[in-house]
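hey m, so remember when u said the tokens were messed up on ur end? i reran from scratch. heres the input so u can diff it against urs
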Amino acid sequence: NEDNCVFSTDENACSLSSSAQRADVILDYDNIIRFFQLTEGSKDSTTRYVYAILGLVVDDSPCNLETSRWELLANTNCANPSNLMEETKNTFIQLLSDSGENPFVRDIQVGNEFCDTTGFNPAQIEVQVDGNCFKHVHPAHLSVFDMTDWSYSDAHPGNMQAEANGHEHPIRKWAENKTDEHPGWYLIYPSSHPSDPSFNHPISRWDTYRSKLDYIGRLGDTVQFRDLPNSLRAHEIATYYGVPLETLGPGVLVCGSFDEVPNDPSLGSIFDLRSPYQRTTFGGNFEQQREVVWSTIVLFEDDQLCQRMAWALAQILVVVAGSVMTEPFVGYYDIMVRNCFGNYRDVLREISYSPLMAEHLSYLDSRSHAYVYESNGQVTYADENFAREIMQLFTIGLVWLNQDGTPKLDANGKQIEVYSNEDIMSFARAWTGFRKYQDRGNIENEQACSTCNRQDPMFIDKDRRDVFPKSDLLGGYIGDRYPLCVDLPDKMFLRKGAKYRFLGSNPLPELMEDNDKFATDPTIKRMILDSGSGLYKKLYNNGVYLNTVIL
């Protein structure tokens, strides 16, 4: 959306820079409850409810889970060590011995190692490793989440019921009413309700709604401040950890989404807005409103052929309209309308940057193996969901086809598959690093969540992106036949066709992640153009800065 950016010198057009947010945050008991304490009653930030989760019941074998979690009972012998097959036990012992240094839990991936726990209750498997006992637990046990989104009255039926009956709030009570018995750093998931079995929560409910929570790390992990969800990079929290949040003053590049226009109530056709701070109506059916707004557009616009084509595209490139918000969903549908008579490749590019698609197919904030391992020592793989679906459902399908559409056959008469699981794993690494932009005040947002910007295209965080080559489907690599930067002719930045993007006046703009010293160290040399040079005149343009300059 760079063509829609405007250079603003308004003193109010500012934001908080994320460039210098490098500080260690240890996810221990004190720091977890501190997120609540620092934001409670704040005028500038929403009170944050951050907890480690307890009470989740593991119901699957560690042999079947992509990643299994084990609670460390340090310097303790297992009370009931599982009498596993020798090969399986040795597999667990080896993997747990090399599973990092977290003092509370360890994560392992069995992979192709021998593993058989048939006949054992997954929740009762214990393995002795030297002087420590490891107990198999739910994969999210002692994971730390920002659960603020669950604390709103209409986010959970139990919240409204508790408020109506004068009972403790089921989400907020752990932090607000902390005691020696319940110190406020954890929340117990009520898989088994202490007094009323009718309130028991099945684990499937956790699996369904967990995606609405911001994951921070595991109890005992050390994370970087810059890796916290935007909702936790509030001023009060940054100040406590000594992180300088730099305010960007005049000279900021302000970018809207494609075709975004100012709100003008005089035009009519106004729809109700829902936000954490104000609401234009109470008790309204927002999901029905979204359907009405969409129906009005597609049925009464003059470009009916385009609308029909957009509808057809939307049946292929599907996202679940689970959110009640009108603006983001209609914005996603606009991608199909803009490209109704265009190129399918352009549609794929735009939907790939859509936060709705990234949430739907789970590649939002997918991180490279190297980034995760260097951050906390965990061995993980990039999310494969979108990499698989973009081939299987959106483009080439499962088997190679001839020009007439019939399947290609091998020498044995069997259909030739297009891709293997290894191809999917390779392509999954291409979808790492995609993150939402920070929230802004003039778009619809149903919750106080600075990472809930579903309106603007995502950006790619270079630190979280996988940097290694990705194989294509023809025996080569994506990017083959394109020149490397080191192979370009000398002084390419002065040749015809060189492209310059305007990033504003700040030495560390949001889309660049140079070392902090670039902005703060006066000894670092910077290139300053001579006012008489041709490049200076092109970029300066008599003081009217263009978003893009092509020589």
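this time it looks ok to me. The two ends are 21 Å apart (CA to CA). if urs says something different then somethings off w ur setup not the seq
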